[in-house]
Specification:
Layout (H helix, E strand, L loop, with lengths): L1 E6 L11 H4 L4 H15 L2 E6 L3 H11 L5 E5 L3 H4 L1 H10 L3 E5 L21 E4 L4 H18 L2
Parallel strand pairs: 1-2, 1-3, 3-4, 4-5
Length: 148
């Protein structure tokens, strides 16, 4: 089983970017935790980050054929990334949307997600733990759906 974890704009700054909102773990630390958890679950985790929507779309199009699911934190693209939304939908894979902060408890514009309508679910406000929870839920769902 193979899960893609796709991080959007500015997430490369985690650990330095407003730690009171986004926490003090770096993106590298989060990716390492996900890969470690993936090994424990018997899942290959492939991570990718870009500040460019087109690069995220290229990654999805290139890798979705060999993947079973996607976890994404689209960053600010959550609110206006329609081409990213379409790429996620076109992948045909189950998608879990993750946000470190509670996007529903912040500025009003942050609570609108164009990704949510094509996602299986959304995890918001649990910090880095939201990624781990998404991996566990998605893996369990994929294994359950694959059961005879």
């Amino acid at each position: 089983m193979r899960i893609l974890v796709i991080h959007g704009p500015n997430l490369n700054l985690l650990g330095r970017r407003d730690t009171s909102i986004y926490g003090d773990k770096t993106l590298g630390e989060i990716d390492a935790l996900l890969k470690e958890q993936g090994r424990a679950l018997g899942v290959e985790v492939v991570t990718f980050q870009s500040n460019h929507e087109g690069a995220l779309i290229d990654f999805i199009q290139e890798h979705s054929g060999s993947a079973d699911g996607i976890i994404t934190n689209p960053g600010a693209l959550t609110h206006y990334g329609l081409s990213l939304r379409d790429a996620l939908l076109d992948s045909g894979l189950p998608v879990i949307e993750v946000h470190l902060s509670n996007i529903h408890g912040r500025e009003e514009w942050r609570s609108r997600s164009v990704i949510a309508a094509v996602a299986t679910g959304q995890i918001s406000g649990l910090g880095w733990r939201g990624y781990v929870a998404a991996l566990q839920v998605l893996t369990d769902r994929l294994k359950t759906d694959a059961s005879p």
